[in-house]
# Entry
Amino acid sequence: MQPLPGFRDFLPKDCARRNYIFDHWRAVARRYGFVEWDGPLLEPTALYTKKSGPEIVAQLFNFTDKGDREVAMRPELTPTLARVIAAHDREFKKPLKWFSIPQCFRYEKQQRGRLREHFQFNADIIGEESLDADIELIALCVDLLRAFGFTAEDVLVRISDREFWTDFLREQNVPKEGWEEVLQAIDKSEREPREKTAARLGPLAERTFEILDGEGSSEKLERLVAALRDRGLAEFVEIDLGIVRGLAYYSGVVFEAFDRGGKLRALAGGGRYDNLIQQLSDGAVSLPALGFAMGDVVLAELIAESPAARRKMEETIAAEQNLDIYVVIAKEERRADALRLIQALREQNYRVDYPLTPAKVGKQFQTAEQLGARLAILFGDEWPQLKLKDLPTGEQSLVPHEELPRRVATLLST
Ligand code: HAM
# Structure
């Protein structure tokens, strides 16, 4: 009776939280001028083996379909985006600002903050090579987190530049084929004992550790942070050259968002991938691109742990879910009259519920309370008058039934 390991059932309360997260993602993305798109859940496995890097490929949920095709459930959206852009390149004026909320699947070991399915908000800018696009994207990432009620005391975006490291590798005469391995070692260095990283880095270890310990500087990243300071967002970000990202396709500025307490996994991650579209389309289309994704799992954990963010979420959900009106049918002879009124009130967009089958009046009022109804309307002996009760205050009045819609409108507008 349990879901598969790493998969979730979404009971109504979980769906309400999920919708709360999605609604904020969508609202902030639209504020930034991003438009929504989506792709297929299933893709040819080759789309991922081609460029995403070993980590994601090892985590694929893949199989052979009935037509003998090697397919995989999407572990991320970026390769699909690159494919879609390459296929529809001519149809759109650049730059594009696109967002999407895919469910993604990764065959990972289930642990805190990591499941086998998750939803990811993705935002990508296609066709813009200027640093202004990187700034816009990081500002969006910060503002998404702020929309949930987080402050600079709760979250931090750590920003780095893969180009800084590839310049370093070039200087150190490391052949290009060896770059990805070094970058992966730097990516893992924070989670691993130094000796282990040193063994992976070999002769580069000493200089790399000096840089990681604060000796590196990047004029590009300084400019980026200065621009975020102009937007009032500097306290949310920090330059940290230890971030290189696990995915192989990044080529420039990269960043990851974390909780300040450092207890949770990354909330979001992304960066520039100027070569991916060209590589996946075998050179047919070449466009600079950058983007990031924010997952729902870690975000929900941080909301649950932060009192202010949690209160904001619970109040928003309650306000959205509570009924406006519960109709109490005290006399079954009045059921047809009650349903006529219910129909009329629903047509005016009120949220209205009532007992589908006969029930004791006390029980009906209990249900009204449980459903968070603001008003109760009682159909009983008083007909053609109705008893109208303001549930939070307990105030009651008798209202002729033809006047009821007007009275309801007045009460619910306060
Ligand atoms: P990623 O860092 O692999 O990047 O994932 C982005 C976010 O998705 C993570 O920070 C995390 O919050 C969430 N996430 C990833 N895997 C899991 C999991 N197994 N369980 C729960 N949450 C997870 C990418 O996917 C890139 N494609 C992002 C991107 C978009 N880059 C450019 N555009």
